[in-house]
Amino acid sequence: MKTLIQFISEKQADFPFATGEFTRLLNDIGIAAKLVNREVNKAGLADINGYFGQQNVQGEDQKKLDVFANDCFLTAMRHGGMVCAVASEENDELYTYDNAFSQKGKYVVAMDPLDGSSNIEVNVPIGTIFSIYRRKSESGPGTVEDLLQPGNRQIAAGYIIYGSSTMLVYTTGHGVNGFTLDPSVGLFLLSHPEMTIPEGGNIYSINEANYIYFHEGVKQFIKFCQQDDPATLRPYTTRYIGSLVSDFHRNLIRGGIYIYPGTLKNPNGKLRLLYECNPIAFLAEQAGGKASTGYERILDIQPESLHQRVPFFVGTRHMVEKAEEFMRKNA
Ligand code: AHM
Ligand code: MG
């Protein structure tokens, strides 16, 4: 049995420059994840304890769960002092730490503290997504430029899924490993070593209700998924939870493609490059899969702003390549 911390410490050899700081940062993320997990598990008791974002029966304000998650991760990373700045879905501006200790931190983080949070009320898995870069500036509070690095410069990325069990899945560019939280001892244990996306998957995940707004290439790819050809496992099967972490996690284990394309209404789609697409793309590639905008590799995009959106195609390599083929033909 190997814990997350034992595993990360052993893997420090992957980093010739390792000082142990990176290990501590991942540990801090793991601690915040456990606190968020505890609150997510209580969400079902909202009727009894008071809804998140409203007053409880004692007349106290209850924080919304996504605000709570944001605070938790920001606080955990402040204590560690490894991180000088954080771009979060919950903060319009870059969050910088005001303590001298953190301002010496080598790293910057982009995160979506609670992705798919509209699913909390219906007991569907939600997640946290994180992406870690080495800062570019020398010292002082981190800057927006520190965050505006292409995804191929990530030194680590991962997600936590709060599901039927809670898992932390991450990569440092040396494969993908998954850890399951054993709630009885409060430890993440290595349960899914060296995860790879199966080539033989048959799942496609897309919000088809937007069909009329899709690009012709996406429409034709959907038609392709629905054609009868048992040799290629078609027709594929649709699975769409509407929670990126859960949809990606399932496709990572079973094989499949997730698409959030640009639409007529929103040409850049919905998902954010820095803290949704880049980290998931890094994991996908490290698991043998692929991630693109339909035309170009996600990880090669030079970001222009913290909350920039991009169309997102991710999953089993040949499925993403097939979708790209339809996009190109109909460009
Ligand atoms: P959020 O960050 O506001 O939670 O939105 C992101 C979520 C993803 O988890 C999910 O894949 C997507 O939005 C679903 O969007 P839609 O309801 O348009 O299909
Ligand atoms: Mg999100």
TrEMBL record:
Biological process annotations from GO: fructose 1,6-bisphosphate metabolic process; fructose 6-phosphate metabolic process; fructose metabolic process; gluconeogenesis; sucrose biosynthetic process
Signal peptide span: none
Boundaries of every Fructose-1-6-bisphosphatase class 1 C-terminal domain copy: 197-327
Binding site for Mg(2+) 2: D112, D115, E276
Catalytic activity from the UniProt record: beta-D-fructose 1,6-bisphosphate + H2O = beta-D-fructose 6-phosphate + phosphate
Cofactor: Mg(2+)
List of residues binding Mg(2+) 1: E89, D112, L114
Pathway: Carbohydrate biosynthesis; Calvin cycle
Cofactor note: Binds 2 magnesium ions per subunit.
PROSITE patterns: FBPASE (PS00124)
Record-listed substrate binding positions: D115, G116, S117, S118, N207, Y240, K270
Entry superkingdom: Bacteria
Record-stated family: Belongs to the FBPase class 1 family.
NCBIfam families: PRK09293.1-1, PRK09293.1-3
Assembly and interaction partners: Homotetramer.
Protein name per the record: Fructose-1,6-bisphosphatase class 1
Species in which this protein is naturally found: Lentimicrobium saccharophilum
Gene this chain is encoded by: fbp
